[in-house]
UniProtKB/TrEMBL annotation:
Species classification: Bacteria, Bacillati, Chloroflexota, Chloroflexia, Chloroflexales
Organism (species): Candidatus Chloroploca asiatica
GO MF annotations in UniProt: FAD binding; oxidoreductase activity
Keywords, ordered alphabetically: FAD, Flavoprotein, Oxidoreductase
Keyword tRNA processing: no
Protein name: Lactate dehydrogenase
Length: 930
């Protein structure tokens, strides 16, 4: 430990803090300050100048403002359970402790969110939610002490993130302290807000973007049933091989946790589990959960794989008490390891899951080579390794050997396509390893985003970035690079000919002020963008079609970049359930490629044979099955992006857990090509379900349909899709709505002076998984619906045809009288929003057809009628509901309208766009902020 001299803070600052927070909430005594000098890593200890303990977000913002104005850095602190040095005040300054901010302010079970302060303890939130039938799914081992703010700072995972995902998958919005001491929300909890995903990039930023004071968290229903089995293997290598085999077979359990013989020794002594401690013996904890039906069969399939891979004993934990003891032992392992050695060095890294056996062989070689004992306890199901190197810190030679092992593990992880942190963050511990993973341009882009949120480097300074290259210096290097890339300037008159030299004449065409190009490789794409940057012209990336944002009226030269020739597979590891492809591959082609291996990307969109992966990611496209699988935001693992000046950068990696730097792929999902052009994308994919079936219900009215949706949401059932379809008609609309065969059809334009009654609402509920579980879903749903709803059970080709037609409802089409609008609300408000939109359409003399993700609160509206009526309809709808997005409409309808609806944190959005694209050349017709 390296204690630093303590310097008393200025009296004026202490007085101001005491006045704002109360003297009891300001810590200045040296002995008390020592309790804030380190986190659980014990990498280094640094005593802060003072500590403020606010009780409200406003107090936190005030304390931050006072400290920042006085020139003090600020370090946000939750419970101090981090093990990468992220909460250590290495530049002293003010520690902002959230220990008193522990209020659960709001819980909305129907809309499945809660508003919580940053100091709420993870386990206490879950204890509050459990009687309501819900959970906050991330469950790090430190959850009995760690706070939501801390979980958010490191994008924490835990044993159950194999099924449920990591923290970022469960955060809907955050409240952030800005450098001027103001508070800003990144959203209101509605998932489909327009603009850049600020929430996504703040999660995992380790406090360097500012203190988070509150969060809107997603609630997940508790499963109806679960099973836990302890499988014993002769070695950690065979246990790791079993994990790879389980994933490769298409089984996705809730949890797969490995603990080697050293770990078993520790937990046996602490918790009396009575497991064999023979040399090499390794424990694999297996958990599955879901509805009761079919769960035992699913577990047996996994256990048979374990037997085939060498498991010599299977011990079920049959009772809740036994299961709780197993998980308590696993999660409290760090405390038990003190029985084995005075200290340990924990190496947090993630690799593709098929590399687990190789990594374990490497760890064993290192153990023998360096003569230092290693304990392996890790989240094997998602490839997140945690070798714990046991050593005596008073022995300099042992300390050196322990660090040598850690460095060798990280080096092989990177070589095998892994990353240097899966869930603990970079902090102080690994900042100088980051250049091994990232190129200088990669680091510069991370630093540019840092500069947007932390322009004075006062929020948690000296973290994440390499010590030799501070972030503001890296950001300045990027700005200089962008400036230099404009030289020598290229006359616009020479643009097309220069692009022909790069691509060949066959792939460059001109029409008026528009040049269209078709690069054939990622390198050609980058070179073409560099040429356009030198010429100072706008670039507009297109996938499989023309987006509504394309400015056809512009007289300035713009270059349209078609990506349809970029269709290669970069990396496909079926046994890892990941794939990397070039951005021009169509969704239909990806579906065919995955289907050949029994896998899927559960995204269903209209015109999948034209929609490209790059375009879908850039538009943050969703599909009906988001209720069961999530969206592209959850599946994008990494990407290669061409920046404004043509520089290629790599963001993320093809692993399912990664907190090595900022989660920049989140910024590109939904960015519509305004921050960079997506060249390749790496995705998480899923096994095809053994069974799928749909129940189609004709509802007597809207109220009964949504009452059924509410009952379904409150149940323990887990449907993958719940789609609501309804149509409205007003007599003055002069065109007909073309609707597929299975969907209610209306004739618009009746000569009657009365509103034509709308057809009955329809509800489509899809279940996937084990045959018994699917049958249970349909049986219970039919019971919930009762005899007043006519129902039809669809499977096989009939079901496929139905969902093909349902996704076709989202097609843009070319009708000059139709506008396509997305309306997003909290799910509990969807019924009212649908009713309001229908009434407004009738009043506006429009025909309206809508389909909605009923569990998620997202509706797609197709309104048909006269131009002025459509403009009025959109304008009024956008005044009544925050998240109304004009997806597609004729130019006369779009003219002068702000198409994006409410955009949160607008100043941050503007600054981000300006920093990343200072010349404004990336798809400039898309302006999220009016």
């Amino acid at each position: 430990m390296l204690p630093m001299d303590h310097v008393a803070p200025a009296d004026g600052l202490v007085a101001a803090l005491c006045q704002a927070l109360g003297s009891h909430a300001v810590v200045t005594s040296l002995d008390a300050l020592r309790t804030y000098d380190a986190d659980a890593s014990m990498i280094v200890a640094c005593i802060p100048d003072l500590v403020a303990v606010p009780a409200t977000p406003q107090q936190a913002a005030t304390a931050a403002r006072l400290a920042l104005q006085a020139g003090y850095p600020i370090v946000a602190r939750g419970a101090g359970t981090g093990i990468a040095g992220g909460a250590v005040p290495v530049r002293r300054g003010l520690v902002l402790s959230f220990a008193r901010m522990e209020q659960i302010e709001q819980v909305e079970t129907r809309s499945r969110f809660a508003v919580v302060q940053a100091g709420v303890v993870n386990a206490e939130l879950n204890a509050y939610l459990a009687p309501l039938g819900f959970q906050f799914a991330p469950d790090p081992s430190s959850q009995r002490a760690s706070t939501i703010g801390g979980n958010l700072g490191t994008n924490a995972g835990g044993p159950h993130c194999l099924k449920y995902g990591v923290t970022t998958n469960h955060i809907l919005a955050v409240e952030l302290v800005r450098p001027d001491g103001t508070l800003v929300w990144t959203g209101d909890g509605v998932a489909e807000a327009s603009g850049y995903d600020l929430t996504g990039v703040i999660v995992g930023s380790e406090g360097t973007f500012g203190p988070v004071t509150r969060a809107i968290v997603r609630l997940t229903p508790l499963p109806e049933a679960n099973r836990v089995v302890l499988a014993l293997f002769p070695s950690v290598i065979t246990a790791s091989a079993a994990v790879s085999a389980v994933i490769a077979a298409g089984s996705l359990p809730t949890s797969l946790e490995v603990m080697d013989h050293n770990g078993i020794r520790a937990v046996n002594g602490a918790y009396g589990l009575g497991l064999p401690e023979a040399e090499g013996t390794t424990l694999l904890i297996i958990e599955v959960d879901g509805v009761e039906d079919g769960l035992d069969d699913l577990l047996e399939q996994i256990l048979q794989i374990c037997r085939d891979q060498g498991a010599f004993e299977l011990r079920p934990a049959r009772t809740p008490a036994e299961q709780a003891r197993v998980w308590a032992a696993r999660k409290a392992f760090a405390g038990a390891i003190g029985r084995l050695a005075p200290a340990y060095l924990l190496v947090d890294t993630s690799v593709p899951r098929t590399r687990l056996p190789l990594m374990m062989e490497h760890v064993e070689r290192l153990r023998q080579e360096y003569g230092v004992e290693v304990c392996n306890v890790f989240h094997a199901g998602d490839g997140n390794l945690h070798p714990l190197v046991l050593y005596d810190p008073s022995d300099a030679d042992q300390t050196h050997r322990a660090h040598a092992i850690a460095e060798a593990v990280l080096a092989l992880s990177i070589e095998q396509g892994g990353v240097i942190s899966g869930e603990h963050g970079i902090g102080l511990e690994k900042q100088d390893f980051l250049p091994l993973l990232m190129s200088p341009a990669d680091l510069q882009l991370h630093a540019a985003v840092f500069a947007v949120f932390n322009p004075t480097n006062q929020f948690n300074p000296a973290k994440i970035f390499p010590t030799a290259t501070p972030p503001l210096e890296l950001a300045a290097q990027r700005r200089a690079r962008l400036h230099a890339a404009r030289e020598p300037q290229l006359p616009v008159t020479a643009l097309a000919d220069t692009l022909r030299q790069v691509l060949g004449s066959a792939y460059v065409s001109e029409h008026d002020a528009q040049v269209t190009i078709q690069p054939g490789t990622v390198e050609e794409l980058a070179a073409s963008v560099a040429v356009c940057y030198r010429a100072g012209v706008a670039v507009v990336p297109l996938g499989g079609g023309t987006p509504p944002e394309l400015d056809h009226t512009s007289t300035e030269v713009q270059v349209v970049i078609l990506t349809q020739r970029l269709t290669r597979v970069c990396t496909y590891a079926p046994d890892d359930l990941t794939i990397g492809v070039e951005a021009g591959m169509t969704l239909a082609e990806l579906h065919r490629l995955l289907a050949a291996n029994g896998q899927q990307l559960p995204l269903d969109v209209a015109e999948a044979d034209q929609a490209t992966l790059g375009g879908l990611v850039a538009a943050a496209a969703d599909g009906p099955r988001r209720a069961g699988y999530g969206t592209l935001r959850d599946w994008v693992l990494g990407m290669t992006v061409v920046e404004a000046d043509g520089t290629l950068v790599r963001l993320g990696a093809q692993v399912v857990k990664n907190v090595s730097g900022y989660d920049l792929p989140k910024l590109l999902v939904g960015s519509h090509g305004t921050l960079g052009i997506i060249a390749t994308v790496s995705l998480k994919v899923f096994p095809q379900p053994p069974t799928t079936a749909t129940l189609a219900l004709t509802c007597p009215d809207r109220a009964s349909a949504f009452a059924l949706v509410d009952r379904l949401a409150a149940s323990r059932l887990q449907p993958t899709a719940v789609e609501y379809v309804e149509a409205f008609q007003a007599t003055a609309a002069a065109v007909s709505l073309q609707v597929p065969e299975h969907i209610p059809t209306i004739e618009v334009g009746s000569p009657s002076s009365q509103t034509v009654p709308s057809p009955l609402p329809l509800l489509y509920v899809r279940a996937e998984g084990h045959p018994a579980a699917v049958e249970r879903h349909l049986r219970e749903l039919a019971r919930m619906a009762g005899p007043q709803m006519a129902s039809q059970h669809l499977e096989g080709e009939a079901e496929s045809a139905l969902w093909h037609e349902l996704t076709a409802l989202d097609a843009s089409g070319s009708d000059p009288h139709t506008a396509r609008i997305r309306l997003a609300v909290p799910p509990a408000e969807l019924c009212g929003a649908v009713e309001d939109a229908g009434q407004l359409a009738v009043q506006s003399r429009l025909g309206l057809r809508l389909n909605a993700r009923a569990l998620n609160g997202v509706a797609y509206l197709h309104a048909t009628g006269a131009t002025e009526d459509l403009r009025q309809f959109y304008t009024v709808l956008a005044e009544r509901w925050l998240h109304v997005h004009l997806l597609d409409a004729p130019p006369a309808v779009r003219a002068g309208l702000h198409p994006w609806g409410f955009v949160p944190a607008q100043d941050l959005m503007r600054t981000l766009k300006s920093e990343l694209d200072p010349q404004g050349c990336m798809h400039p017709s898309v302006r999220f902020v009016p």
